[in-house]
Amino acid sequence: MIVERARAKLNLALHVRARRPDGYHELETLFAFVEHGDEIRVARADAPSFTIDGRFCKALRAEDDNLITRAAAAFAADIGGGPWAIGLGKWLPVASGIGGGSADAAATLRALAELEGVAPDDPRLFAIAERLGSDVPACLLGRTALGRGRGEVLELVAGAPGMPALLVNPGVAVSTAEVFRRWDGVDRGPLGAGPLLDVARAGRNDLAAPAIAIAPVIGEVLAALEGSGAALVRMSGSGATCFALYDDDAAAEAADRRVRKAGPGWWRALTRLTG
Ligand SMILES: C[C@@](CO)(OP(=O)(O)O)[C@H](O)COP(=O)(O)OP(=O)(O)OC[C@H]1O[C@@H](n2ccc(N)nc2=O)[C@H](O)[C@@H]1O
Ligand SMILES: Nc1ncnc2c1ncn2[C@@H]1O[C@H](COP(=O)(O)OP(=O)(O)O)[C@@H](O)[C@H]1O
Q: Active site at which residues (predicted)?
């Protein structure tokens, strides 16, 4: 049995530059990852199976088209192997801007590569990831990186490993496609250059305004985090999850207590950035 962590993805900044003829948008984004995530378990089996458990499993049981089973089918077709028994521990909220499905698909590809003796940097894995979704290549790489294109053109940058991070989701699922559809079409310029946190602080998330128009509670989450002494507060991706980064554990723990009071029903995860 191979067990692989599907780490949550954050967009420390997300600049939308233009609409593309293919229906996607040209992005400049800073991808970072945290220790907390879903769990993927794979093992050889006589027949294929897929099981889901964990706090957010119910949101997916109804979904027959899971990014995990699509990743496994693509691996079998392009590389070979199987059948496999695959299990998902679903601990990240679904459709929430932190790459839950994308991270699961990427972790499935990594786990199957290890099980089947395929090198983790085999280019066929990235080719499959690109077909599965815009964020899957970044999640497969799993390192702090600048993303361009749809999000699949990646350039490694120095991260801030160990930095405390508080993730908060108010319990509303937001459609990525709908948020992009509502983007106002205004190119507010590129990301700056320099150290990660400086670039992130000087940056923005251009999807925040359209996401807040769809789910105003996102604004309440941001307000609760903004008063918490954070080094950076922002919505991640197309939302609804927001995050705050802290210079020390005491500030992060105090913020967690403050947010618990502001939104007793909100999902929270106190974790750390990885490299
Ligand atoms: C917004 C971001 C930021 O990292 O993340 P999430 O909010 O999903 O976490 C990503 O760009 C989401 O990537 P991903 O979730 O893989 O999107 P996909 O499945 O490829 O596309 C879902 C839909 O989002 C829109 N989309 C996605 C990416 C992009 N660069 N432009 C777009 O317009 C398209 O309408 C597309 O049909
Ligand atoms: N294993 C999975 N975990 C989460 N979402 C999944 C999964 N498989 C398919 N999906 C679908 O993919 C979308 C979320 O994928 P993702 O790109 O990770 O978005 P987000 O970053 O908003 O979670 C949702 O529409 C969800 O229904």
A: 9, 135
> Are 28 and 105 found together in one domain?
yes
Spatial neighbors of 239 by CB under 8 A, at least 6 apart, are 96, 97, 174, 179, 207, 208, 211, 212, 215, 218
pTM of the model: 0.96
- Distance in angstroms (rounded) separating the CA atoms of residues 182 and 159: 31
Asked if omega into 62 is within 30° of 0 (cis), the reply is no
Atom of ligand 2 at shortest distance to CA of 134? 17
Q: Tens digits of per-residue pLDDT, 2-24?
A: 999 999 999 999 999 999 999 99
Report whether 238 belongs to an annotated binding site. no
For ligand 1, mutation pick of 38, 154, 176, 234 (most atoms within 8 Å of CB):
176
Catalytic residue among 38, 90, 104, 135: 135
Range of the domain at 237: 164-272
- pLDDT by residue (tens digit) across 227-265? 889 999 999 999 999 999 999 999 999 999 999 999 999
Contacts of 58 (CB under 8 A, 6+ apart): none
In whole angstroms, what is the distance from residue 128 CA to residue 149 CA?
17
d(CA 218, CA 236) in angstroms, rounded, equals: 11
- Do 73 and 47 touch, CB atoms closer than 8 A? no
Total number of domains constituting the chain: 2
100 lines ligand 2 (CB under 6 A): yes
Question: Rounded to whole angstroms, how far apart are CA atoms 82 and 213?
Answer: 45
Q: How far apart are CA 34 and CA 89, in angstroms?
A: 17
CATH at 192: 3.30.70.890
